[in-house]
Amino acid sequence: MNAIDPVTLAILKGRLEQIADEMDATLFRSAFNPIIAEAHDASHGIYDAATGETLVQGKSGLPIFVGVMAFAVKAVIDKAAKSGGLNEGDVWIFNDPYAGGTHLSDFRLVKPVFRDGAPFCFLASVGHWHDVGGNVPGNYNPAATESFQEGMLIPPVKLYDRGTFRQDVVDILSANSRLPMSLYGDLNGQINALELGERRMAALIDDYGAPTVAGALGELKARAARMMRAQIAGLPAGTVSAEDFLDNDGIVDAPLKIALDLTIEGERMVMDFSRSSPACAGPVNISRATTVAACYVALKHIFGEVPANAGVLEPVEFRIDEGSLLSVGPPKPVGGYTETILRLIDVVFQAVAKIAPDDAMACAYGTINALSLAGHRADGQRWVMFSFFGGGHGAHGAGDGLNHGNAPISTATIPPLEILEAAYPVRFTRWALRPDSGGPGTYRGGLGAVYEIELMERAAEVFLFGERGRHPPPGVAGGEAAAANRFTYQQDDGEHRPPLASKMVGIRLSRGQRVRLETPGGGGYGPPTARDPEAVRRDVRLGYVGREAARSAYGVVLADDGTVDGAATAALRGAEAAQ
Amino acid sequence: MSGRHLVVGVDVGGTFTDVFVLDERAGRVATAKVPSTRGDQSRGFVEGIAAGVDDFAAIGTVVHGTTVGTNALLERKGARTGIITTAGFADVLEMRRRDRPTTWGLRGSFTPVVERPDRREVAERVLADGTVLEAVDEAAVRACAGALAEAGCEAVCVFFINGYANDANEARAVEAVRSVWPNAYVTGATEILPEIREFERLSTAALNAYLQPVVSSYLDRLEGALGTRGAAGDVLIVQSNGGVMTVETAKRYPVRTALSGPAAGVIAATAIARAAGFDDIITCDMGGTSFDVSLVAGGAAALAPQTAIDFGMVVRVPMIEITTIGAGGGSIAHVDKSGLLQVGPESAGSDPGPVCYGLGNARPTVTDANLVLGRINAERPIGGKLDRLDTAAARRAIEQHVAGPLGLGVEEAAEAILKLANARMAGAIRLVSIERGHDPARFAAMPFGGGGALHAGALIKEVGLGSALVPRFPGVTSALGCVVADMRHDRVQTVNRLLDALDAGALGRDMAAVAEAAEALLARAGVGFTRIDRIYELDMLYLGQTHTVSVPIAIGPDGLTRAAVMAAFEDAYRAAYGRLLDGIPVRVMNHRVAVIGRRPDLDMAVFAPLDGRPAEACRTGTRRVYADGAFHEAGVYDRLALAVDARVEGPALLEQADTTIFVDPGLVGTVDRFGNLIVRPRETGDG
């Protein structure tokens, strides 16, 4: 069993990945809510029968789930051990964020796959449901101080018991959601995905035999660890540090520090977050599982070759203080976990840039900007428009950042504005790139965007959960920060901005009033005064950078006809260098 | 008219221009192959026809699969194009759907085909329900158009938000632009695609505008060159949906040629297989860098609603669904840092190509593995560019990069490379078959292109396909496809109504009217059809979903009813996902109409070997071939000399100018009455 030949191993790796990918595709196609169907906020994988460790993960799901799902499966293993064991035909369901990571919106279905009467592996499906109760439609409640205000919390319970569907459980879930129809549709999609995964897995085991498949799963994990050790060994030894900040927790207007001391010792890496802020009152806390998963995502963006399984983290030691912002228990609110993990990824990027600038990228826009508009139509029917918005990617050692990309933790696409306008009583009045939002650098950060939305119904409430309003995405290797996030809303007495920058609940909007979201770009890479003046000229011509910023940020002077004034540019850059 | 008895199919590829001539009067076929002429494909085009046709005046129809559009997109060689759009939305093309090129690593970039200064805004607004909130000012539109023309734009696209729901503003703007634009290259987005989803509609329309000058001038040159040679027949162009259109239509909708070439290949494969009694096939086109598969079930190729030519270059028109993976003859094998063998997606392509080409690549490829294992004849390389292949260099590369690191012998390592490449191809086949609910045992693999026939046997074993069918001339399949392609027009219109609130009768009448208009277009093309088929479909979904299910419907003499639509939806939904969702309202998002003019079937018996010989008489020698961990003495045969019913047992190599077929040990190949080689496992091969 331990001597599986390398060719069979490579073939099995492909077959197993295909199973996970196909489970992803099944849910994306049949899901009800656009957060899964369009934004792909879901994931599927194959997990170890004894430990729950990730063995294989689908490529198209949400990257952040790659790390956390192992904790979710482990939670089911533990619960089953205390309550009668695992049976063939069981499917467990839950959303406890302290046991399985992330936040209450993410419902996990976990199914043991049996072979010859014993569990062979687990299949799991996680998806972000549209509404799980709580104080705020769509569940991004920036004012939550306990998880009870964020939605229902379901511990691991059986959705199927030895193959029998438990309608009671679905009735409880449905009764606790503002959008039970959407919940029912998404739940069915996840069941479809698990059923399909089980059929595919059975066919694979039939083809190769259980011992060979099990051997391959173990060997893939061992090789991932080996590969990660080789990557780490290639980095210079020593310790580097990076710090970054969340604007606030939505309750108290004070910045929250996330600090990383990254140590390389031979084939080991230590990620020490001890200097980070303690747990906060508002919903930007995360569980330890989520912290570990976010580090995995950051490392995988930098070292793209490492595979998606548990072996990758074997040579990495984490130091995360219990009770810190990065390791909380119940009932601390965790609804805004996305913002905290984006900042974690940013500090990993910034730390790695100090030891391996060639591998590094500057920070991306760093906030998902969960914006919801909710109200009732003339006929009394409730509507909730909920979406995430894009921004710029960081520049890197080989080029400018991408304009209007998706967040590093996700592969989400944004719903078409025509779909949103057809479904909800709103119209967009602007959907555009945001000039001067990319961080200046030798390579420029990508541009963020401007979205402006007008209400077409009598009244609505607006909720925003965003970040980077006070601490814009930093550059690396001498590059500069991008523009900060900016949100404004109209009231009868004019335009306003939220007191907490990018977080606010219950903004009342009347017909014809608008909200505007201007998202950050990505950070710059390298000193801006080293940028090719012709590249700056092009940026000005395309409207990415204004003439004034060309001069002040890049030291490039353009003549009236738009060409580079070489002498004036050299003089300006020379003067800056002399300072 | 009676003199115009030739139908000529022409496929212009990157390297060769293939010509297939059908003499309808004599019932004969001829093929020709000439080098493609880069820069101006029309020269190679005419030279290719001249190589197969003595008298151009005898040509009734020329049907053309073209890569001019595809190449212009891939190489970004379209015309400078302007966009005129709704105020507030000039960046839709550049913002895409907020995606990135790769999941991992944030290093992607994107350059739109229309630069920001060439995207101009005008005040106007239509709402999602079709209400005109603000009428468009034609004078402002004309001013915009003037400025774009002044700036040097050759083509222009008009795209307004929610134009799918009501195109009144957009149509007026298009008219205003046409009144001042110096040429015919004006594209209205809803004329191309009246479907909801702004980025997809704009991307398709902008690429149409971008291609229009390039494709139009090419087609003009083509018609001119044919005219000079005395040809007076019709010219038809293959569309990505596998049907043909007139030159006039192609000039208006050049974006429909985005996958013209590959589509022709699938159409030919479908026709050849149908004649041979195979309605269910999976076509496999193996090139230097990629492996393309398409599923043909029940004699019809699967269509995909959209494709991305490159990151962010989305074309949403129905296309023959072609799944591409990076596993071709030039795919490079290496051992990664965890000690796992990988094949592709990095490729040496055809230049420098495999190590054995001796053109500078030192890393082993799939072709090198085939050579080392004796499956390719080192003295007779396919394609005619090289005199011989360097087997020793291929061995050294495999030794150094694969065998050494894995602790295997060179042959074992080479076979491992093939196994892995085959496994990746098998994965692609599984993706289009098993994963869509098709049983692979019902399907035959149909390799075309140069390399596929070496791997067909392995694919039978790996995926459990029933058999493989190798056409007599795999290298000219696409040109043949041009000759047999039907004429086809696809139309879509967004409806976006709940079924409960829908006037089904009116919907049925609308769809029938669309079909009649498309049929009128067929009638004007001057081509003979054996019959005309209409396909009606609705894109439907449960309220709350965003992905639709394609629902085939029939419109009978009594028209369409809501009950019939609901029943059809439930059938389609159940087939796709297994379970219905009771009590949730159903929405009709789009209607789709396809009108197909069926061209007469080509009698494939024209390919039958005329003076074939039994297998023993065609045996030209033997070669040592390594397969399944051991050397075998494999017979080598002259493929084209084999008679009908000739039978060759594996391991065997069948050679011809444009391909080599490897019949694996345990398989047997027989020649059918159309000259195809049918390969099956030995147990069933005798039946």
In percent, how much strand structure appears in the residues of chain B? 25-35%
CATH architecture of the largest domain in chain B: 2-Layer Sandwich
- Please provide the count of β strands of chain B: 35
Helix content of chain B: 25-40%
Provide the domain count of chain A: 3
Question: Could you say which overall geometry of chain B the principal axes of the C-alpha atoms support?
Answer: globular
Mean pLDDT of chain B: 90
Question: Please, what is the oligomeric state?
Answer: heterodimer
Low-confidence stretches of chain B: none
CATH class of the largest domain in chain B: Alpha Beta
* Tally of alpha and pi helices of chain B: 18
Q: Count helical runs of chain A.
A: 13
Mean pLDDT of chain A: 93
Describe the protein in words.
The complex is a heterodimer of chains A (579) and B (687). Helix content of chain A is 32%, strand content 22%. Chain A is of the alpha+beta class and 579 residues long. Chain A folds into three domains: 6-225, no CATH class; 361-528, no CATH class; 533-578, no CATH class. In chain A, the strands form four sheets. Chain A has a seven-stranded antiparallel sheet. Chain A has a five-stranded antiparallel sheet with strand order 14-15-20-17-18, covered by helices on one side. Chain A has a four-stranded mixed sheet with strand order 8-9-10-11. In chain A, strand 9 and strand 10 form a beta hairpin. The mean pLDDT of chain A is 93. With 687 residues, chain B is α+β, with helices and mostly antiparallel strands. Chain B has five domains: 6-73 and 216-260, Nucleotidyltransferase, domain 5; 80-184, no CATH class; 331-421, no CATH class; 487-598, Dna Ligase, domain 1 (2-Layer Sandwich), CATH 3.30.1490; 608-685, no CATH class. Chain B has 18 helices and 35 strands. In chain B, the strands form nine sheets. In chain B, strands 13, 14, 15, 20, 23, 24, 31, 34 and 35 form a nine-stranded mixed sheet that branches. Chain B has a six-stranded mixed sheet with strand order 3-2-1-4-11-12. In chain B, strand 26 and strand 27 form a beta hairpin. In chain B, helix 12 crosses helix 13. At the A-B interface, helix 1, helix 6, helix 7, helix 8 and helix 10 of A face helix 3, helix 7 and helix 12 of B.
